[in-house]
Amino acid sequence: MAEEKPIRLSLNNIKNSRLSLARVIRLFGKGQLSEPKMRALVYGLSHLLKFFELEKGLEIEKQIEKINIILEDKGII
Asked: Within 13 Å and on the Cβ side, how many CA atoms surround 54?
């Protein structure tokens, strides 16, 4: 395999991170990325995506708490 070119991955949000993961997999499928590098990138991206999902879950929990407080103040629950 020829020398690998640097890969630019956009990791600033969950959508771009998923697209970057897909890009890594496509590059490996085309033979443009070595298996060790692909494995390392997939491992890191998988953890990053789990973090994004956890963060989103925490945001949802905060919104539910705010809604419950509003409903309690109005005597609905």
From this structure: 6
pLDDT tens-digit readout, 20-37: 999 999 999 999 999 999
d(CA 57, CA 43): 21
Backbone region of residue 23 per phi and psi (left: phi > 0; alpha: psi in -120 to 50; beta: other values): alpha
| Torsions phi, psi for 34 (to 5 deg) | -70, 155
Note down the domain range covering 35: 14-73
Q: Based on the structure, what is the number of domains in the chain?
A: 1
Looking at this protein, which amino acid is placed at residue 63?
Answer: Q
Asked, for residue 69, whether it belongs to a domain, the answer is yes
Residue 26 lies in a domain: yes
pLDDT of residue 5: 82
